What we know:
- This protein is of the alpha/beta class.
- It has one domain (3-225): TIM Barrel (Alpha-Beta Barrel).
- It is built from 9 helices and 8 strands.
- The chain has helices at residues 3-13, 29-37, 48-58, 78-84, 94-104, 137-148, 173-187, 207-212, 222-225, and strands at 19-23, 42-45, 66-69, 87-91, 112-118, 154-161, 194-201, 217-220.
- The protein has an 8-stranded parallel β-sheet.
- Helix 3 links the parallel strand 2 (42-45) and strand 3 (66-69).
Amino acid sequence: MSIKENYQKIRREIPEHVTLVVAAKTRTKEEILELIAAGAADIGENYVQEAQQVYSALGNEAKKLRWHMIGHLQTNKINKVLSIFDVIQTVDSYKKAQAIDKRAEAAGRNIVPVYIEINIGSEFSKEGIKPEEHKPFEEYMLKLVEDMSKLKHLRVEGLMTMGPRSGNPEDSRPYFRQTRNLFDMLKELHLPNVNMKTLSMGMSNSYKIAIEEGSNMVRLGTIVFGERKYC
C-alpha cells in the first residue's frame, strides 16, 4: 500500500483520542508531502540537521505539521531545535530543561511544551532517565517535575518512553504499565507550568499494546512509510 493508504488505515484503526506522530527519520520531501496529503498533522524527527533540511525543502507545507523532537537532545543543538520543533519529547534532566528555558526567550518562544523521556527498562544503549540510577524513582521524578515547574518558558506536558525492544510486543506491556502509573501520579501534582496530558509510548511493533496500557500518543515510522532505503 501507499504511504497515504497506510497512514489512513492506521488512523482509522486506532482510537480517536490517540495522537499519531509519524517518525520521519531518513524520509524524503516527497514522502512527507504524501503524508501531509493523507491528513497527517504530527511528525517526529530524530536528528536536528536532517529536520532542518526537510523543513526547509517543504517550504510553507512544513507549517501544516506539528514538529516533535523525538531523538536525543544535545544541549549544543537547542537553539536549532527551538527554531523548528513545536514539542520536545526528549528532556532527560533538569540541566537540559534549564538550558531550553534559557534559550527559549532569545528564540522568540514564550512557552516550549516538553515531555520527560523515561528509559523505563534502564537500558544502557538508550537515552532517557533510567529508574535504576535514581532510587527511589518516584521521589526523584516528583522533585524533577517540581523543579521544572518553576522554569518560566517551559511547560511539562507529558512523559515519553520506548520500552525494551523485543520480538514479542507483549514483552513491553509491564514497562508501559509502569510508565502509565508514573504518569498518573505526576498528573495529580497540579503544579504551575505542568499540564500532564500526554503519554507518548508505542512504536510500529508495540503501539497496540501501548494504547491498551494508556498511551494517547504513538510514534510510528516503518509501518507508515515502509522499510527505509539506505544509500
